[in-house]
Amino acid sequence: MMSEINEKEILRRFELISKFTLNPEVTASNLDRVRKKIAEGAGEQKTSQQNIWRWHSHFFSLRASAGSDAPVGRYGNDLNNGSAANYHRKTIMKSRITKFAAAIVILLVIIFTVSHVNDSVDIATTAFAQIKDVITSMPWQHTITQSHYYKNGQQETYESESWYSFESKTMSIISKHDGKIKYYELPARKKHLYDPETNTLTISYLSSDIYNLVSHQLPSPANLLSDIIAKLKKWGAAIEMNKSQFEEKNVNVYFVTFPAEEYEETGMLYRTQKLIVDPDRNLLIASKTKQWGEDKIVTESLTHYTYPSDGPKDIYEMGVPETVKILDYIPPEKLHEVLDAISAYRDSFPDRYIAIVVRSHYLWSYDMYLTEAANTYYVDGNRQRIERRHFVSTMFREARKEIESKMQDDFAWQFSWWSQDTNTESGMLFTEITLFDGKQVYELRRRQDMKGQWTTKRKFRAMVSPFAGYGPVPLSWPKPAMDVKRMALIEDDYAKEKGLICIQTLSDGKMGRKKIIALPRKCLFYINPAKDFICEKAIYIDQRNAPWQSDASWLDGISPSKINKEDWTLIREVVAYRKTSSGRWLPKKIQNRQIRPKMSKEEIRRNKGRMYTIYFKENQPFPQDVFNPEQLPKPVIQKIAGIPDAKGVRELNLCKKRLRQIGNAIAMYQNDFNGKNPPSLDVLVQTEGLNADALACPSAISQKAEGAFVYRGKDLCAASSSDMIVAYEKAGNHPGGYRNVLLASFQVKRMTENEFKELVTQDNILRKKEGLPEKSIK
User: Fold this and answer.
1) DSSP conformation letters of 627-687
2) Is residue 187 a contact partner of residue 171, using CB atoms and an 8 Å limit?
3) Is the pLDDT of residue 593 over 70?
4) How far apart are CA 627 and CA 173, in angstroms?
């Protein structure tokens, strides 16, 4: 009898059950057997069976109405009735028979549910592939999209219309918010851009990289389905399939809920995709995408698809006037060959290696390069891991000089040194790990004020590594900016002397709603064909009143307060090469120098900038579990007294991050201006390219108040005591009475109001010792 089964027998039978492979076709009969076993019991068998199945139906009920946007798997309302749930639970647990039977029921239903979900994914994947095949057999597709973006309580709406021919591979896109029209001839690698404000039609060439990017991001329902199929196969998803009505048509509705992604600054991010399919033609006719965070919608868009028999043959059929001014920037065929050669060498670079990129900063007071940071890159095909370590900027300089004298210029020594954990004696901090294991991205960060504990910066899913643009490859073969329209081969004196190929690119300046996004830029890339087409020297010139700016009056009427960028030149040059074990060339040392118009000749001469040294080993054995996310440091869950919710913690952390950005910008300013601190924080936006948003606390942003930091370090310099205060938050920015404080060591500390007052007292003592006036709290 079942009532006589002891605990060991129960465990033994559960172990046997766990080894079974369930066939979904017989699941119903298995559940009927369980029902019968329960019904055969004595006493309260009938009541128990009814209550068990009533409870089960409540627990696994799904919101499956065709008009609902709720994801699959949300519980029914009856679960919110605590007294009913307690009653069911107590009834089930009255006898050993019902305990055991209930356990079997739950186990079988969970297995059935998992099996059912997997089958749903397989069925949906097959259905989406069939729909995609029908779409690609159509001559044309026509798409109309309306997207809404929500940020800081503001909504922005964008509308676009596109046409795409599956036969001729031409695509047209109309952006309705600014009236611009794009027309792509993909086989010829041509892009046509019409700007109605200037009545100009710019024709430019698509390099291999941009061509591949455009081809994979076509606004086509076929591309959308390909993307969803790939994600379903890689990550899985919850899928609900219904029949419904859409615009007075009978349709099939697929509701896909993707796994949630986690970000430190925004919390959990959820994404759903609703696909509406015409069952008669098996064509996708509409899609709705929604992304939302813990307490607000981030983006949502609705797209309609039609499949006409004909479409626009050129950009003029999209409404471009015949009187338009044409700017033809199609480069000569020889430049096409150079660009393709650069892409070929970059794409064929070894995909299994370990690289260490060490960054050093030249200090004029020491007349030497002093190591400041290093990134270690582990690359195995699509799997990548990056470890970031750096020295505290102004501390331990004497100790670092001694370490610098002991450093050896070989991979083994550098790998050993930069593989260690935080080294408190030298001030070297192991601060960040980024891992992509082929499916998931993990970003961990060590907070300097949490005694070496790690926290999760963010975690999200990705199809390919989002970090392919980092490391030795982009340093060797930099890509032209996406918005470059004018490219040409030029032959200047430097190219002739060195036997290099010079590519010149010109970009126009851009004006945003509140400030300049980018100044007009000229780039000169000097390519060395004898060394695998590596870019041996690159010069980036940003200039407000540039002669190459298409619209010379682009700054007319603009308030000087919105012109937050100044002219500057960046020179990046390979000063030493090395060969890999497979015979490939690679830069060994790359020098970066910034030159600004106000710098004197002596300052330019002394400015040696930063040096990047690359140590590289291909086919090197990787450390054990280096790509295993289970072996990452275990992050702690940060809880701060006085801050009731995760949003408050994120805002406090984001504020700290922005103060750290301010500290980095001050360090750059000190290097450019002989160790002096800037006269104000606003100057950093103009001279060091600091994002203006970094000067506002996120809590203050939500209150529409800017200037959330008090600058106390105007009269400090690089030689000031590392414990002195440079900047701090105004009182009341965060709940709990916390403030973030930037010190002269460029560390950022979070402290209570009492701790802050004690720090100010100590700061005034240090200021008095250095002959500086005391300052009160603002």
Assistant:
1) T-GGGSPPPP----TT--SHHHHHHHHHHHHHHHHHHHHHHHHHHHTTTBPPSSSHHHHHH
2) no
3) yes
4) 41
